[in-house]
């Protein structure tokens, strides 16, 4: 008699297909990473002073660069499938500027936040070399086409920008949970970090195109909870032979 | 007369350099940071060293033809950064470093190479050694490096001027765009407790960042009329 037994399996063993070579670049903790092709924009933001006004809504769009466990079977360079993300519904509480010696810290809390990752075809999202000025029919439309493979919510989203003379950079930090998407079962319900670099300097000498507020570079970390998979008594016995 | 005409025609055919775009990604990375030397319990006290080791997660157009993660594991090291001063206010910290830091990018063959392993409490038997034992492909000086951190929100960032000055892949970075930036976002170590669960013991923060360079200047052609107009 076969019994269906739920077993906990290490996240790294859950890949449903052959792992891509990207495994070598994954290291520890990273689940999904984005680099050059991600940009943020707000409904009420002053680029020159790094100020987000109370009530401003922050959104982010981007293209995934790297998948790690448990998504090693997904290839972000697949010529027929583009993995893009859209983050929105982050409401600003307003920016506070705090001088600390020669450095000024610009701190902004955002409430709420939703995120989604799509597997779209064809590859049509604009990238860093050609982000259209906003408003644009391509943003976020070309980042939200195709089925949603993962989606969820954010909490505690905080942006910090610091200026020390010509050194201007920042970071974003938050916690995410996965609540939907065709591949949500691989992740489980645990929470983990969604964080990274936040570059607010404007092009041509900086990171951010006009009409956008920042260029983020960041990652979703792997949550600590491991999802369960159905198994059989025969498979269980094989583990201990 | 003929010589002058020929000269002017030649001038008309010259390419006039224009800036085609903007600051671009050289390579992106993720990793962890740690202090070494770590002289006391104060985070990045004067005289202490700042280090980042990790993995390259993407490259820009200049390096893309030469990046193959089916053949190599690509790693990064940022080091040789010594604290010269620090300023704090409550949970906010700003740290300055001496010039002369280094940032480097390595390629280690998957077949026959060593898998880069963080271990715990670096420096240790595998870190940074397994991150720097491959072929060093690009290296650069890091100057004007500043790190800031907010211990209440568990996040911070760093930035510095990075000038590519060595490595065989430096040949793919035109000389006029070798002076760029190294940027990183930090998360994971608040006042209330240990670092995030994904930060190995002995490391301080998760790091996600990139090295950037100015856009490669492109050429455009002009007409004789446009050339004349420049000198009116």
Structural class of chain B: mainly beta
Approximately what portion of the residues of chain B adopt beta-strand conformation?
over 45%
- Taking all Cα atoms into account, the compactness measure Rg of chain B is 22 Å
Sequence of secondary-structure elements of chain B: HEEEEEEHEEEEEH
By oligomeric state, this entry counts as: heterodimer
**Helical coverage of chain A, percent range:** under 10%
Q: Estimate the mean pLDDT confidence of chain A.
A: 87
Mean pLDDT of chain B: 86
Radius of gyration of chain A: 20 Å
Major sheet of chain A: 10 strands, antiparallel
Number of strands of chain A: 14
Q: Rough shape of chain B? A: globular
* Tally of DSSP β-strands of chain B: 11
- Number of individual domains of chain B: 1
Characterize this entry briefly.
The complex is a heterodimer of chains A (241) and B (232). Chain A has 241 residues and is mostly beta strands.
């Amino acid at each position: 008699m076969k019994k269906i037994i739920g077993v906990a399996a290490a996240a790294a063993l859950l890949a449903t297909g052959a792992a891509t070579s990207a495994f070598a670049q994954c290291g520890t903790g990273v689940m999904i990473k984005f680099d050059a092709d991600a940009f943020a924009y707000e409904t009420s933001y002053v680029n020159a002073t790094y100020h987000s006004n109370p009530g401003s809504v922050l959104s982010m769009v981007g293209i995934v660069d790297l998948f790690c466990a448990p998504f090693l079977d997904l290839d972000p360079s697949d010529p027929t499938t583009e993995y893009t993300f859209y983050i929105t519904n982050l409401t600003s509480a307003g920016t506070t500027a705090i001088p600390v010696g020669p450095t000024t810290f610009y701190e902004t809390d955002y409430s709420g936040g939703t995120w989604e990752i799509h597997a779209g075809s064809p590859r049509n999202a604009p990238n860093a070399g050609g982000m259209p000025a906003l408003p644009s029919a391509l943003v976020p439309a070309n980042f939200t086409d195709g089925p949603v493979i993962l989606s969820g919510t954010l909490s505690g989203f905080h942006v910090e920008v610091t200026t020390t003379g010509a050194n201007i950079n920042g970071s974003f930090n938050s916690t995410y949970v996965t609540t939907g998407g065709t591949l949500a079962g691989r992740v489980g319900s645990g929470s983990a970090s969604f964080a990274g670099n936040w570059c607010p300097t404007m092009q041509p000498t900086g990171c951010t195109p006009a009409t956008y507020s920042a260029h983020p570079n960041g990652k979703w970390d792997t949550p600590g909870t491991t999802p369960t998979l159905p198994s059989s008594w025969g498979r269980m016995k094989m583990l201990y032979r | 007369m003929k010589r002058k005409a020929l000269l002017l025609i030649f001038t008309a055919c010259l390419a006039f350099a224009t800036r085609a775009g903007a600051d671009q990604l050289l390579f992106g990375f993720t990793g962890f940071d740690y202090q070494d030397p770590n002289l006391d319990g104060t985070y990045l006290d004067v005289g202490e060293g700042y280090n980042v080791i990790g993995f390259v997660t993407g490259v820009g157009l200049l390096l893309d033809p030469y990046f193959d993660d089916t053949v190599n594991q690509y790693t990064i090291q940022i080091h040789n950064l010594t604290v010269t001063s620090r300023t704090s206010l409550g949970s906010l910290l700003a740290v300055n470093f001496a010039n002369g830091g280094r940032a480097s990018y390595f390629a280690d063959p998957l077949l026959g190479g060593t898998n880069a392993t963080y271990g715990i409490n670096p420096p240790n038997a595998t870190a940074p050694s397994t991150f720097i034992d491959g072929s060093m492909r690009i290296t650069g000086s890091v100057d004007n490096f500043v790190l800031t951190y907010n211990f209440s929100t568990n996040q911070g960032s760093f930035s510095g001027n990075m000038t590519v000055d060595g490595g065989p892949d430096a040949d793919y970075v035109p000389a006029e765009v070798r002076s760029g930036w190294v940027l990183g976002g930090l998360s994971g170590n608040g006042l209330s407790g240990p670092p995030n669960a994904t930060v190995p013991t002995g490391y301080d923060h998760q790091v996600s960042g990139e090295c950037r360079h100015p856009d490669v200047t492109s050429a455009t052609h002009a007409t004789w009329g446009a050339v004349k107009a420049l000198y009116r």
